[in-house]
Description:
The structure holds 2 protein chains of 2 kinds.
Chain A: E1 2-6, H1 10-21, E2 25-30, E3 46-49, H2 55-60, E4 68-71, H3 76-89, E5 94-98, H4 102-110, E6 114-116, H5 118-132
Parallel strand pairs in A: 1-2, 1-4, 2-3, 4-5, 5-6
Chain B: E1 2-6, H1 10-21, E2 25-30, H2 33-43, E3 47-49, H3 55-60, E4 68-71, H4 76-90, E5 94-98, H5 104-110, E6 115-117, H6 119-130, E7 136-142, E8 147-153, E9 163-164, E10 174-181, E11 184-186, E12 193-194, E13 199-205, H7 209-217
Parallel strand pairs in B: 1-2, 1-4, 2-3, 4-5, 5-6
Antiparallel strand pairs in B: 7-8, 8-13, 9-12, 10-11, 10-13
Amino acid sequence: MRILIVGCGRVGSRLAIEFVAEGHRVSIVDQRQEAFRRLPDHFPGQLVLGTGIDEDVLRSAGIESADVFVAVTEDDNTNIMAAQIAQAIYQVPKVILRIYDPERAEVYRGLGLTVICPTRTVADMIEEQVRQHRPARVSG
Amino acid sequence: MYIIVVGGGKVGYYLTKTLVNEGYEVFLIEKNPAKVQVYRDRFGAIVMQGDGAEVATLAAAGAGRADVVIAVTGDDEDNLVICQMARERFGVRRTIARVNNPKNEELFRKLGIDVTVSQTNVILSIIEQQIPERPFVHLMALRHADLAIVEAKVSQDSPVIHQPIWQIELPPEVIITAILRHGELIIPTGQTVIEPGDELIVVTKQQREAELRELLTGPPA
């Protein structure tokens, strides 16, 4: 598959490395050159310097032929706009984005995007751990 | 009418000031606390510090009863999300977004923003209208119908000259609505003959503009 990732932070770079190892064709976009240092030397994917909300940048990263689009910059609104460009303009078959704000995540899930909300997910996991915890001693 | 303005830069500031003077009920949301302090001194309690893309902020600003939300921050991604949140979450019927990168106008409209304002495009169109020798000028885009009104000067090289309009093979979805000839306005019929130097006012589907341009001003040099 052709996978386009916007945001070469910890999550984006990790995904890029894993997808390449699985044999996918990966291009990754970031507006900071230094972000690409998170990738190994001779990384076989395509690196594109620029913002993920600019159609020219996305086109040079191959959005027209992408099977999967992933938006994982640090900024919720950038991810939302990039994902909507991929969905509404380029009809990328699978569009996945990260939104930290749970309220915003809910709204855009309702608009047909695949939204991952780490805030909600982490809070749920921690709550679950707390609920499973059986105190060894009952204080009182 | 209740209007929420998000973004207290120069545009947001003067917009708020003008709307207040016009007698509208206005509320301004700005992120930067220092600016909020200054604007409070000027406008009073209608200014709030907060992130206009956040539900809590919009709720506190009374977005549920707002007639219009106008997002005029310097970041297009923020303006887009502010308008979409206002519409999807609070049912605001009319949303207006400032578009900093003119390329985003089309996208924003596709994504359901009612009105987009691009300073770059506004200034560009003013420049185009002020330069008399331009043979083809885009006068106005009519958003919803995807229509444009253009002014075109018919050149000596145009294949349409000395022909009545009914004989001209215009692109589909194009209508010549008026002709300016030697300072006189002609409302054309099918019999009207096009002369070189005529200035045509044409209503066209936006995607036909390039075809029309070539037809009226001659093939590109």
